Amino acid sequence: MTGPFSPTKDGVLVAVHVQPRASKPGLGPVVAGASGSAVLKARVGAAPTDGQANAALCALIAEALGVPKSRVRIERGETSRHKQVHVSGTPDELLAKLAALAG
Predict the structure, then answer these.
(1) In this structure, what CATH number is given to the domain that contains residue 12?
(2) Contact 19, 41 (CB under 8 A)
(3) How far apart are CA 53 and CA 49, in angstroms?
(4) What range does the domain containing 96 cover?
(5) How far is CA 33 from CA 16, 26, 68, in A?
(6) Per residue in 42-74, pLDDT tens?
(7) 29 neighbors 17 (Cβ within 8 angstroms)
(8) Number of structural domains in the chain
(9) What is the pTM (predicted TM-score) of this model?
(10) For 1-33, b where at least 16 C-beta lie within 10 A, e where not — what string?
(11) CB 46 within 8 A of CB 18
(12) Rounded to whole angstroms, how far apart are CA atoms 97 and 85?
């Protein structure tokens, strides 16, 4: 199982499995995805309609990492529960924060 976090030149890519309409929103733990690769589990209270769950996911990740929401975007998987999220910033700092969240 490979890790869900990948550094890029301008930030970090995070493989995420989203559970919409969750009663308790939150991030973690890291689990094995359907393909066997690691994903960060995310629970959001929003419904998966009109981009509400995607917006809630971006806000949740931004808050957890202490970055503005404008630095978090869905890279792939807009209509899927399996998403790749890009967070702009210093890769080393973001990876350290993500490791603390996942651990």
Answers:
(1) 3.30.1200.10
(2) yes
(3) 7
(4) 5-102
(5) 9, 18, 28
(6) 999 999 989 999 999 999 999 999 999 999 999
(7) no
(8) 1
(9) 0.92
(10) eebbbeeeeebbbbbbbbebeeeebebeebeeb
(11) no
(12) 15
